[in-house]
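lol ok so funny story. i was supposed to be doing the assay writeup but got distracted and ended up predicting the structure for this chain instead. priorities right. anyway since i did it might as well share w the group, maybe its usefull for someone
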Amino acid sequence: MRDGEVVRATKMLMAAVIAAAVAVAVSGCVDGAPVQPTPSPSADAATSTPSADPATSSTPSADPAVSRAAGIVIGATSFSIVDEEGAALASFGYFDPAASAIDAVTAQLGIEPTVEEIPAGMETPPITRYIWGGFRLFDAEVPTEKPWQYDFSVSATEPEAVPGVGVSTTDGFAVGDLGADVESFPSASAQRYDADGREVLFIGLEETVIGSENGMDLSYSIGLTSDPSSEPIEQIFAPYPNFGV
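and the output, tada:
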């Protein structure tokens, strides 16, 4: 499966992940399917091509008992657990095995996740959702195929994963920040769209080219949403694929 088929499958999977995260974020309500952002190829941020791809390497902490997490930083190609100085205790690319990331987050936060199974849809695979407070990890039961299909994705629906451990983007934005502040950031690219009469804001940050095929750049970004657009950011998620269609 290649080109259009893979692009559609990847975007459908990302839509399922976003929908699952939003369902938890909005007062636990699951009786209304949220409208998903559909950004154009230019709807994300400035691109860069990593030479040594951070999305393929993990750096677990040597001794979690010595340095406990002070924050989680979500990037376009990876996320990191950091200490009070901002130094990485562990970093995991979205193509790394989900199990290693799950173990590290559990150890560093000191709590076991709530585990929920999301059934397969018509064109989406089963997904296992791991929840540590305001931080979630989604492990889809699909084969990893770089650059088309990552192994797992993450999202934040609150400013903190657990008390004292904040969750933010690499540029320091968090759930609860004003969408207008994020939208005005130099590398941000925003799109507004109508959802049943209300305006929803989608913002892309840190668009990063992870590969190419047939002359087309394949990129991942950090996504942020505000629903309605006048409200603060309610969700951060990554990776968000932009494969040019």
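Residues 1-12, 15-66 have pLDDT under 50 and may be disordered. The helical segments are 3-25, 98-109, 179-183.
back to the writeup now i swear
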